[in-house]
Structures are given as C-alpha cells and as structure tokens.
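Journal club side-thread
Mid-discussion, someone asked how the predicted structure for our own chain would compare to the paper's figures. Pasting it here so we can look after the session.
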Amino acid sequence: MKIRKSYANGEETKVFIYENKKEETFVVAVPSIEWSNSFTYEETGEQLLKRLTVSLNGTALDEQAAAEMAQRIYQWTCEM
C-alpha cells in the first residue's frame, strides 16, 4: 500500500492506494472525506478520469478540487 499526500486549499489530505497485482486492480481511499473506489488495470484514460471525478464530486470537495484529486490519483496509479 502506498500513501500519498495531496494538497488543496492549504490542507493536506492522505490518499491510500492499494495495488492487487494478482487481480490487476487498485483500491483507492481518502478517509478524511470518507471516499473510496476501485478499478482495474484495463480502465484507463478519459473514461477512468471522468469516473473518478464524478465520484469525488459527490463528496466534500468542490468541482475543481475533485477534478484535481482525480487527476492526481490517476497519475499516481499510472506510475505504479
């Protein structure tokens, strides 16, 4: 499991990323906003980015913060 820090609006948010290589999936959680999501290696690009943004938008984050967080999560999981 990887723990990444995201900064938005002057606040630090911890993002937990678990990679299950055997099942080719990721589980991502942000406890401070009570959000989590999972996706497979096959889900990539704009489709995944849009899904993450929509999901994060339903939390305490505004639209811009949700889009930024989704982009960071996408980038971090691509690096793994």
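Post-session note: The first strand starts at residue 2 and ends at 8.
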